[in-house]
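Project standup — Tuesday

K.O.: blocked on the structure for the chain from last sprint. Re-posting the sequence here as requested.
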Amino acid sequence: MKKFIYILPLFVVLFFQKENLKIIPSQEKPKLVKAGDTIKKDTIKPVEKLEMYHKSAHASYYANKFNGRRTASGAKFNNNDMTCAHRKLPFGTKLKITGVKTKRVVYVTVTDRGPFHKNRHIDLTKAAFDKVKPLSYGGHIDVDIEVVKK
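H.V.: unblocked you, prediction finished:
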């Protein structure tokens, strides 16, 4: 009987306050695009502006012995990050790297200077290199380098 006395005022308050309660509708489900539907080309906007820097550049990757060392920009090197080394581009420059054979794309940031081999144009971290490399390779590959503009 005591429980009923405590619960009764709660029901009374809820009964008289039901007009003031706001029911939040659930999020609308996204509409599926059917095969016959057309998409307006005006609504699609490019996400980034790209400027071709070098076509068919030779790329290699860092050895694991550099993990934990400081780069030329002062950042700590990690072979699992998406970074690279370039001789001339400023630190912090975002690059789009596309494998010439595979057409796979990876976005990296310039954090170091190099490579110090005259025939190579860019050094990628092992993680970035693995994303664009073909199944069989000899330690260096050809890539297209594009600078991402803001």
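K.O.: great, moving the ticket to review. The domain at 51-149 is CATH 2.40.40.10 (Barwin-like endoglucanases). The first strand starts at residue 49 and ends at 61.
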